[in-house]
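User: Reviewer 2 asked us to show a designed sequence for the structure in our supplementary figure. I'm pasting the structure tokens here. Could you produce the per-position amino acids so we can include them in the response letter?
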């Protein structure tokens, strides 16, 4: 019988979880890049009031790195949605103005 190490089991579980889609982790292209080395950051561990360590790269970063980037992405999405809605309203207003002019004629 072949023994399997815990490390192999963890890797297998992580791979199976990732391939089945049953994970709460973000894909690497959506993760915040480290400001120093551009490696996707999965964790930030505070080591003091003004310093933190980014994981997995180990670079020193600001403690709120992930929270700020997440907030920026959310705000960017909200701005896009507002612009998209505003564009629809502008088109509807233009259509309504043209329609009113047609009715007056």
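Assistant: Here is a per-position design you can include in the supplement:
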């Amino acid at each position: 019988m072949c023994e399997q190490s815990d490390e192999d089991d963890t890797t297998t579980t992580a791979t199976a979880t990732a391939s089945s889609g049953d994970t709460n982790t973000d894909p690497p292209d959506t993760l915040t890049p480290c400001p120093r080395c551009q490696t996707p950051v999965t964790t930030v561990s505070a080591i003091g009031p003004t310093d933190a360590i980014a994981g997995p790269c180990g670079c020193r970063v600001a403690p709120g790195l992930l929270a700020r980037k997440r907030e920026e992405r959310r705000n960017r999405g909200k701005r896009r949605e507002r612009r998209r809605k505003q564009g629809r309203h502008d088109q509807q207003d233009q259509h309504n103005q043209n329609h009113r002019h047609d009715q007056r004629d």
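For the response letter, you might also mention the following. Confidence is low (pLDDT under 50) at residues 1-18. Helices lie at 6-20, 65-104.
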